[in-house]
Structure formats: C-alpha cells, structure tokens
Write a structure and sequence with these properties.
Order of helices and strands: EEEEEEEEEEEEEEEEEEEEEEEEEHE
Number of strands: 26
Length: about 375
C-alpha cells in the first residue's frame, strides 16, 4: 500500500456574544489538495501567493481558473457528506492572480455550487457583472436557472470570508454573509422544483471574473450550525512519531509540503498491520478556542496483492485508536473526511491541550 497523509484540525472560535452550540454537526472540512475531488481535467492546484489565504491557519489556497460554462470546466468538490436540508458553507475566498487583486465579476460566472442528494447543482452563487456583487440562483437538473436574490458588496479586493446559509425547502431560506455581515437574504421556495429536499456536496469554481484570474479557496467548512465564527487550522504532519513502519523518504514531512500533490513521492508498506505515525504542527494562533472536531484525509492506492485497506490512527495518552477500515482504489485517489468529534481516550470533546500534549500522533495502519 502506498499512502500520502494529511491531518487537518478544525477549530471553532469562542465568542462571548456567540457561544458555539453543543448540537453542532461538522459535515466536511478541507483546505488542501488531498481534501478535495478535482473535476479531472488537471486544472486544480495549490496557491501560496501572499494574501490568498490566512497564514497561521492555512498553508495555501486551492484554486481553479475561471470559466463561463455550465458546468464550469474547472471546479473541485468536497467529498459527499450526509445529506442535510439545512447547512452552512464557509470559506476564505479571493479572485487571485498574484494576490487578491480584483473584485470584478462577470455575469453568470459560477463560483459556489451546492449539490442536492441526487447530485444536481441545485443552488449556485454567481457573478452579476457588477463589481463586488453576487447573486444566488436555483438550477434544475435540465440546466434552467432562476435568480433568487442579488448580493451587493459581497466580495472584496482582499481575502474575503464567505458564509452561505441554506434551509433547502419550499418554505426555506438562503443567505450570504461577507466577513460575517449579511449582504443578502431570500425567504421562500429555494428548491429547484426537481423534488430533492436535502444537500450533500459542495463544488467550488473559478474566479468571478473571466479575465485570467483564479478562484482561490481555503478553510472550507460545511456544518449544520452557524459557521461565521469558525476557523480551520491545518495541523500538517512534521516528523516521525511513535511508530515508523513505512518505507519512503521523509514520510512525515517532505511528502506533505504545501504544494500540488505529486504522486511520485509517498510512503508505502507491502505487509498488513504496518503502522506509521507522525507528529503534527500544533502552533495554533493565539486565542481561546473550542475544538469542534479533528478531521483526517489521505491520498492512497493499493496493489493487486498485499494490503487492501488502511485505518487512520490517532495516538493519544500513549494508546493508538484506529478508525474503521478504508478501501483505496488501484490508482491514487483521495480518501477522507474522517471526523473525530471527541478524544477517543476520554470520550470528551477535544481540547487544544490534547493536540499539544507530548506523544500525540496521527498516522495510518495497513490492513488485509
């Protein structure tokens, strides 16, 4: 089995005026190449230009070129998550070239697509042709659009936090927030008339302007509760940990540089029950935070013989806690959105000190 690894820790700010609900459910968290599903034309790439992401929280943005087609020629997606009739989508976004250099929009350029449980992009955030302005539209499976609401002053020249709230029903609501401020809101029928009642995936497309710009995205979060006060911290692996069973060079470090995925660099094992663990970057920006969940993703393949599965492993308090088995393909593919909402050693919600404790590791173990 050949494995590439990435760990991402998802954090929620604690605001005195906005406590985080205990019933919050994280549906997805992603920020780098192994977290997402590119649409397959090779257009997706990591972007490390200054200003296109928040240093300290992320190592890069993930981006695609702008296109005007439906569907966009260039786009990437979250993994499918549990379908929900109500959700929030959060990301840091900019129209990027050598930085976030414009907030111009092109009429009908798609940038954010919410897919229903049948896989149809049913709600789409699009450009209006007016600088900084967006609109939210429904789209039928046959490709018919209906504009619901226009969102003025939605995107800035600099990096912008976007949050979309959807209650997907005929008596529902859709709202867009820019840097936590509501810029538009529509109440009523937000469905597309095709009969779906829940949303299960999100796609991200290129820049809102078609003049050679990228759409650069980072800190992507999908949850069932308000995401405006949330942030995603990339706790990248940095060095070998407690168990070192895989072959390969710098398995815990060089493989996971914040650049495009290169499948010629990997760790591997030809036997089952081989474990490799890594330490993580836990230098979280100063502040007081609650931890909503720990998420893990991997980029893996298996051969025709040998290990056919793997487990994600979390090591805390001196004990290894494996996930259920995952089954990779015979070619490299992204596997993940493995979400742990509690510390497996205590069954209590995670705390920052859990990740910063000596001996905390993450890793993978090969399985039959």
């Amino acid at each position: 089995m050949r494995l590439r690894r990435l760990l991402a820790t998802f954090l929620a700010f604690v605001l005195l005026i906005w406590p985080i609900s205990a019933s919050a459910t994280l549906l997805y968290s992603g920020g780098e190449g192994a977290d997402f599903v590119c649409n397959g034309n090779g257009s997706c790439s990591s972007f490390t230009n200054t200003g296109t992401f928040r240093p300290g929280w992320a190592r890069s943005a993930y981006e695609v070129w702008a296109t005007t087609s439906d569907p966009p020629t260039n786009r990437f997606a979250t993994a499918a998550f549990t379908a929900s009739p109500s959700l929030w989508v959060h990301a840091q976004y900019c129209n990027a070239y050598n930085g976030c250099t414009t907030n111009a929009t092109t009429t009908d350029n798609q940038t954010l697509r919410l897919l229903d449980s049948s896989g149809n992009p049913a709600l789409i955030v699009r450009g209006t042709g007016v600088t900084g302005s967006l609109k939210i539209s429904t789209r039928t499976a046959a490709g018919t659009f209906h504009d619901l609401v226009t969102c003025p002053s939605a995107v800035n020249v600099v990096l912008t936090q976007l949050d979309v709230f959807v209650n997907y029903s005929t008596s529902g609501e859709v709202a867009l927030y820019s840097n936590s401020v509501k810029v538009c809101d529509f109440t009523g029928d937000v469905t597309n008339g095709d009969g779906a009642t829940a949303l299960s995936q999100v796609e991200f497309a290129g820049a809102l302007t078609s003049s050679g710009y990228y759409g650069a995205w980072s800190e992507v979060i999908v949850a069932t509760t308000d995401t405006r006060a949330m942030a995603r911290f990339t706790a990248n692996v940095v060095a070998n940990g407690n168990a070192v069973g895989f072959s390969g060079t710098n398995v815990c470090s060089a493989i996971w540089a914040p650049v495009n995925v290169v499948d010629t660099s990997y760790g591997y094992a030809g036997s089952t029950n081989v474990l490799h663990e890594c330490t993580i970057n836990s230098a979280i920006p100063p502040g007081i935070y609650n931890v909503l969940a720990l998420t893990m993703n991997a980029r893996t393949l298996v051969g025709s013989t040998g290990p056919q599965h793997f487990d994600f492993v979390t090591r805390t308090n001196g004990t290894d806690y494996p996930s259920a088995d995952f089954a990779p393909l015979n070619s490299f593919s992204n596997i993940g959105n493995y979400i742990q909402t509690v510390n497996p050693a205590t069954s209590a919600p995670w705390t920052l000190s859990d990740f910063q404790a000596a001996g905390f590791n993450v890793g993978e173990e090969t399985k039959p």
